[in-house]
Backbone:
């Protein structure tokens, strides 16, 4: 009996990590938790597992499937979109690897994939990641470059701005402010070339001195609109 | 020596009220005298509280061991576990081994799972606005709320302008407005729009510490 009891104790002890591991149910369980049918969840999980085996994160793939399901996209198209996104992340991972990052983190790969989907080339992704070094600024840097590019600056200009900001040791907060600032300058009539020049010169009051303040310069009210730019004509319109 | 030390077996049976065969006169007299003394002593004892029986039985029931079958009883019963310290590192190593070999959906080591890049603990309140006078409901669904329709509902003013404010982490976010629960509409004032992979367009905002600047 003592042997049996000792065996039970050992089994319970070993069961703890097994249970913890089981809680990481992966893509399949996560998708079913969000209401996706089991058949669709399994198909997406297969794609995600294959992508993970190639070294890309499966979280963004699950997010893409959840997005498609929320938008009531047919299951077959969801699987196609997830597969396409997985292929993009594999290419993005290859681009990141060329920057000398031996084991790129998931957020960097996901940001690189989104940047390349926004029009950035592998070489531009490499330059941004290389400028970031091993820092956590690589992923936001890629996102900012993609946003600047989508605002009309062009991927070359956007890459130069972000790389220049990193080389000037701008903070992540300053980096994240760039799309908003560029948008204001663009609306003030500044050309993309002037925006790039002024950005590279550091000619804007970036957020580096704002610390972790939740509301920046605008006190307690939500800093949704910069002073002087609040204009009802700028609201979104849907009819 | 007590008076009853020399009593015969029949005398004991007589005292116990049991049938007996033969009893001498002296034994019978001694037994009757003892019986009378016992009754006299009992009569002088204080009467017992009638609730005593109830209390005693309740105490007995409280102390009665719970009857559970086999292994279940052993698992549920509190006990002191004795072990040799040498087993601690052995079991810990075994647990670590199980963690390492446990199946995880074939995900290899390396990239960590993360859906939203560039997120920090900092958040900024972002206000979303959409003019849609004909809409019955409008909400914002995006990467910051798991694309849940209705998670961030907007409020309509008298002019038909819908608005909502939400704290968003610093970083890049993708979203769309959802009109009447089914119609997905991008925000033309967002920083950018990108292909959502399903034939539509997602709005993109990059939230910095100063918040979202709208055009």
Residues:
């Amino acid at each position: 009996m003592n042997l049996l009891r000792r065996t039970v104790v050992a089994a319970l002890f070993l069961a703890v990590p097994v249970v913890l591991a089981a809680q990481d149910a992966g893509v399949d369980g996560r998708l079913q938790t969000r209401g996706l049918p089991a058949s669709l969840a399994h198909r997406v999980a297969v794609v995600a597992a294959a992508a993970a085996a190639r070294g890309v994160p499966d979280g963004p793939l699950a997010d893409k499937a959840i997005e498609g399901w929320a938008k009531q996209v047919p299951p077959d198209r969801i699987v196609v979109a997830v597969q396409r996104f997985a292929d993009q992340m594999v290419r993005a991972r290859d681009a990141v690897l060329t920057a000398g990052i031996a084991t790129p983190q998931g957020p960097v790969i996901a940001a690189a994939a989104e940047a390349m989907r926004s029009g950035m080339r592998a070489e531009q992704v490499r330059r941004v990641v290389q400028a970031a070094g091993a820092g956590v600024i690589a992923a936001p840097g890629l996102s900012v470059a993609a946003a600047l590019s989508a605002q009309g600056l062009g991927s070359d200009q956007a890459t130069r701005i972000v790389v220049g900001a990193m080389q000037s040791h701008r903070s992540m907060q300053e980096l994240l402010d760039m799309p908003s600032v560029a948008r204001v300058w663009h609306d003030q009539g500044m050309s993309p070339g002037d925006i790039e020049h002024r950005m590279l010169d550091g000619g804007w009051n970036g957020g580096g001195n704002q610390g972790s303040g939740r509301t920046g310069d605008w006190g307690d009210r939500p800093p949704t609109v910069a002073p002087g730019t609040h204009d009802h004509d700028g609201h979104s319109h849907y009819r | 020596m007590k008076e009853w030390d020399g009593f015969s077996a029949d005398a004991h049976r007589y005292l116990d009220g049991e049938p007996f065969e033969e009893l001498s006169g002296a034994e019978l007299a001694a037994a009757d005298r003892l019986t009378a003394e016992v009754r006299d002593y009992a009569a002088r004892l204080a009467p017992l509280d009638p609730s005593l029986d109830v209390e005693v039985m309740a105490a007995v029931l409280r102390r009665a061991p719970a009857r559970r079958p086999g292994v279940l009883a052993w698992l549920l019963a509190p006990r002191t576990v004795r072990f040799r310290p040498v087993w601690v590192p052995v079991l810990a190593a075994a647990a670590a081994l199980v963690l390492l070999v446990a199946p995880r959906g074939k995900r290899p080591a390396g990239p960590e799972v993360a859906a939203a890049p560039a997120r920090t603990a900092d958040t900024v309140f972002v206000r979303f606005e959409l003019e849609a006078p004909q809409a019955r409901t409008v909400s914002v669904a995006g990467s910051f709320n798991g694309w849940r329709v209705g998670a961030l509902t907007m409020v309509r003013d008298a002019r038909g302008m819908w608005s909502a404010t939400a704290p968003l982490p610093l970083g890049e976010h993708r979203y769309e407005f959802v009109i009447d629960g089914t119609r997905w509409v991008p925000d033309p004032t967002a920083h950018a729009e990108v292909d959502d992979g399903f034939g539509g367009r997602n709005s993109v905002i990059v939230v910095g510490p100063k918040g979202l600047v709208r055009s």
Observations:
- Chain A touches chain B through 104 residues (CB under 8 Å).
